[in-house]
Amino acid sequence: MVCASLFRSKASSGDAAPSGDDAGTSEDAGRGSLPFDAAGIDASEAIPCLLGGDVFFVDGEGGYPGISGSSTIAGSQGTWGGTFTSEIAVQLTVETSTPWVFSAGLGPTSAVPLAPGTYVSSGDDHEIFAQVQAAGGGCVDVPTGSFTIAEIESTGGDEATLTRLLAWFDLTCQEGGTVRGCVSYQR
Protein backbone atom coordinates (compact mmCIF):
# COMPACT_ATOMS: atom_id res chain seq x y z
CA MET A 1 0.00 0.00 0.00
CA VAL A 2 1.28 3.46 -0.90
CA CYS A 3 0.11 6.27 1.37
CA ALA A 4 1.27 9.87 1.58
CA SER A 5 -0.21 13.09 2.97
CA LEU A 6 0.65 16.75 3.47
CA PHE A 7 -1.23 16.53 6.77
CA ARG A 8 -0.90 14.79 10.08
CA SER A 9 -3.98 13.87 12.08
CA LYS A 10 -4.99 16.45 14.67
CA ALA A 11 -3.47 15.79 18.06
CA SER A 12 -5.75 15.89 21.09
CA SER A 13 -4.65 19.49 21.63
CA GLY A 14 -5.68 20.37 18.05
CA ASP A 15 -2.23 21.76 17.21
CA ALA A 16 -1.24 19.45 14.37
CA ALA A 17 0.25 20.94 11.21
CA PRO A 18 1.01 19.79 7.70
CA SER A 19 4.03 17.55 7.61
CA GLY A 20 7.15 18.06 5.54
CA ASP A 21 8.33 21.38 4.15
CA ASP A 22 4.87 22.95 4.47
CA ALA A 23 4.73 22.53 8.25
CA GLY A 24 3.31 25.49 10.15
CA THR A 25 0.44 26.47 12.37
CA SER A 26 -3.01 27.61 11.41
CA GLU A 27 -4.14 31.05 12.49
CA ASP A 28 -7.58 30.55 10.93
CA ALA A 29 -9.90 29.55 13.75
CA GLY A 30 -12.70 28.97 11.24
CA ARG A 31 -10.91 25.89 9.94
CA GLY A 32 -10.96 24.14 13.32
CA SER A 33 -13.69 21.71 12.24
CA LEU A 34 -11.57 20.13 9.51
CA PRO A 35 -10.15 16.63 10.08
CA PHE A 36 -6.64 18.15 9.91
CA ASP A 37 -5.00 21.53 10.37
CA ALA A 38 -5.28 23.48 7.11
CA ALA A 39 -2.29 25.77 7.66
CA GLY A 40 -0.79 26.84 4.37
CA ILE A 41 -3.93 26.20 2.33
CA ASP A 42 -4.77 29.45 0.61
CA ALA A 43 -6.55 27.87 -2.34
CA SER A 44 -10.26 28.64 -2.22
CA GLU A 45 -10.75 25.99 -4.92
CA ALA A 46 -9.97 23.33 -2.27
CA ILE A 47 -12.73 24.25 0.17
CA PRO A 48 -15.57 22.03 -1.23
CA CYS A 49 -13.34 18.96 -0.84
CA LEU A 50 -11.79 19.52 2.58
CA LEU A 51 -14.50 17.90 4.67
CA GLY A 52 -14.15 14.52 2.99
CA GLY A 53 -16.47 12.29 1.08
CA ASP A 54 -16.40 11.81 -2.67
CA VAL A 55 -16.49 15.27 -4.27
CA PHE A 56 -15.44 16.57 -7.69
CA PHE A 57 -15.86 20.37 -7.86
CA VAL A 58 -15.04 22.64 -10.83
CA ASP A 59 -15.42 26.34 -11.51
CA GLY A 60 -14.77 27.25 -15.14
CA GLU A 61 -14.53 30.71 -16.63
CA GLY A 62 -13.35 32.58 -19.68
CA GLY A 63 -14.33 29.88 -22.13
CA TYR A 64 -12.89 26.74 -20.52
CA PRO A 65 -14.28 24.12 -22.93
CA GLY A 66 -17.59 22.70 -21.74
CA ILE A 67 -17.44 24.23 -18.25
CA SER A 68 -19.12 27.53 -17.39
CA GLY A 69 -19.50 28.49 -13.76
CA SER A 70 -19.47 26.11 -10.81
CA SER A 71 -20.49 22.46 -10.94
CA THR A 72 -20.16 19.62 -8.44
CA ILE A 73 -20.64 15.89 -8.53
CA ALA A 74 -20.62 14.05 -5.21
CA GLY A 75 -21.26 10.85 -3.36
CA SER A 76 -23.43 8.33 -5.16
CA GLN A 77 -23.63 10.35 -8.38
CA GLY A 78 -21.90 8.19 -10.95
CA THR A 79 -19.41 5.35 -10.58
CA TRP A 80 -16.13 6.43 -8.94
CA GLY A 81 -12.77 4.75 -9.50
CA GLY A 82 -9.13 5.48 -10.04
CA THR A 83 -5.64 4.23 -10.76
CA PHE A 84 -2.16 5.18 -9.58
CA THR A 85 0.17 4.00 -12.34
CA SER A 86 3.79 3.20 -11.43
CA GLU A 87 3.47 5.81 -8.66
CA ILE A 88 4.01 8.62 -11.22
CA ALA A 89 0.49 9.22 -12.59
CA VAL A 90 -2.95 9.30 -10.99
CA GLN A 91 -6.36 9.25 -12.62
CA LEU A 92 -9.73 9.59 -10.92
CA THR A 93 -12.78 8.93 -13.09
CA VAL A 94 -16.45 9.43 -12.31
CA GLU A 95 -18.59 7.71 -14.92
CA THR A 96 -21.88 9.50 -15.48
CA SER A 97 -23.77 10.25 -18.68
CA THR A 98 -20.81 12.58 -19.37
CA PRO A 99 -17.44 11.63 -17.81
CA TRP A 100 -15.59 13.57 -15.11
CA VAL A 101 -11.82 12.94 -15.01
CA PHE A 102 -8.91 14.33 -13.02
CA SER A 103 -5.48 13.12 -14.09
CA ALA A 104 -2.03 14.28 -13.07
CA GLY A 105 1.46 12.95 -13.36
CA LEU A 106 5.17 13.54 -13.54
CA GLY A 107 5.80 12.30 -17.06
CA PRO A 108 6.83 8.83 -18.24
CA THR A 109 10.54 9.17 -17.40
CA SER A 110 10.18 10.41 -13.83
CA ALA A 111 12.45 8.66 -11.34
CA VAL A 112 10.52 9.97 -8.33
CA PRO A 113 6.95 9.15 -7.27
CA LEU A 114 4.03 11.57 -7.42
CA ALA A 115 3.83 12.64 -3.78
CA PRO A 116 2.00 15.28 -1.79
CA GLY A 117 3.05 18.76 -2.85
CA THR A 118 2.28 21.52 -5.31
CA TYR A 119 3.28 21.08 -8.94
CA VAL A 120 3.33 23.29 -12.04
CA SER A 121 1.62 21.77 -15.07
CA SER A 122 3.88 22.36 -18.05
CA GLY A 123 1.24 21.92 -20.75
CA ASP A 124 3.04 18.76 -21.93
CA ASP A 125 1.97 15.27 -20.80
CA HIS A 126 5.58 14.09 -21.19
CA GLU A 127 6.47 16.33 -18.24
CA ILE A 128 4.58 17.38 -15.10
CA PHE A 129 0.92 17.71 -16.09
CA ALA A 130 -2.67 17.88 -14.90
CA GLN A 131 -5.86 17.56 -16.92
CA VAL A 132 -9.50 18.03 -15.94
CA GLN A 133 -12.60 16.93 -17.80
CA ALA A 134 -15.97 17.75 -16.27
CA ALA A 135 -19.37 16.89 -17.69
CA GLY A 136 -17.61 15.84 -20.88
CA GLY A 137 -15.79 19.17 -21.36
CA GLY A 138 -12.09 19.92 -21.03
CA CYS A 139 -9.01 21.26 -22.77
CA VAL A 140 -7.98 19.84 -26.13
CA ASP A 141 -4.32 20.18 -25.15
CA VAL A 142 -2.75 19.70 -21.72
CA PRO A 143 -3.40 22.87 -19.69
CA THR A 144 -0.85 24.95 -17.81
CA GLY A 145 -1.19 26.06 -14.20
CA SER A 146 -0.75 24.39 -10.85
CA PHE A 147 -2.13 21.47 -8.91
CA THR A 148 -1.66 20.25 -5.37
CA ILE A 149 -1.75 16.65 -4.25
CA ALA A 150 -2.61 16.80 -0.55
CA GLU A 151 -3.24 13.08 0.02
CA ILE A 152 -2.74 10.04 -2.16
CA GLU A 153 -3.06 6.35 -1.35
CA SER A 154 -3.25 3.19 -3.44
CA THR A 155 -3.03 -0.56 -3.18
CA GLY A 156 0.56 -0.45 -4.52
CA GLY A 157 2.06 -1.93 -7.68
CA ASP A 158 2.45 -0.73 -11.26
CA GLU A 159 -1.32 -0.52 -12.02
CA ALA A 160 -2.51 0.15 -8.48
CA THR A 161 -6.09 0.90 -7.51
CA LEU A 162 -6.47 4.39 -6.12
CA THR A 163 -7.94 4.25 -2.61
CA ARG A 164 -7.62 7.89 -1.49
CA LEU A 165 -7.04 11.22 -3.21
CA LEU A 166 -7.34 14.84 -2.12
CA ALA A 167 -6.16 17.34 -4.72
CA TRP A 168 -6.96 20.81 -6.02
CA PHE A 169 -6.09 22.61 -9.23
CA ASP A 170 -5.97 25.96 -11.03
CA LEU A 171 -5.47 25.32 -14.76
CA THR A 172 -5.61 27.33 -17.99
CA CYS A 173 -6.34 25.86 -21.42
CA GLN A 174 -3.93 26.76 -24.17
CA GLU A 175 -7.01 27.54 -26.29
CA GLY A 176 -8.38 29.82 -23.52
CA GLY A 177 -10.36 29.63 -20.29
CA THR A 178 -9.51 28.54 -16.76
CA VAL A 179 -10.80 25.90 -14.40
CA ARG A 180 -10.30 25.77 -10.66
CA GLY A 181 -11.52 23.04 -8.39
CA CYS A 182 -10.78 20.00 -6.32
CA VAL A 183 -11.28 16.27 -5.99
CA SER A 184 -11.77 14.21 -2.84
CA TYR A 185 -12.05 10.44 -3.05
CA GLN A 186 -11.78 7.59 -0.55
CA ARG A 187 -12.43 3.85 -0.78
Description:
This protein is mainly β and 187 residues long. The chain has one domain. The chain is built from no helices and 12 strands. It has strands at residues 2-5, 55-61, 69-74, 79-85, 89-95, 100-105, 117-122, 129-134, 137-138, 144-154, 159-172, 178-186. Strands 1, 2, 3, 4, 5, 6, 7, 8, 9, 10, 11 and 12 form a 12-stranded antiparallel beta sheet that branches. A hairpin with a 3-residue loop joins strand 4 (79-85) and strand 5. The protein is globular and about 40 Å long. Mean pLDDT is 79; it is low at 8-40.
Count up the domains.
1
Number of helices: 0
Strand content: over 45%
The coarse silhouette is: globular
Q: What value does the average pLDDT take? A: 79
**Overall radius of gyration:** 16 Å
Q: Using DSSP, what is the number of strands?
A: 12
Instruction: Give the terminus-to-terminus CA distance.
Output: 13 Å
**How would you sum up the major sheet?**
12 strands, antiparallel
* Helix proportion: under 10%
| Secondary-structure element order, N to C | EEEEEEEEEEEE
Given as residue ranges, the uncertain stretches (5+ residues, pLDDT < 50) are 8-40
Secondary structure category: mainly beta
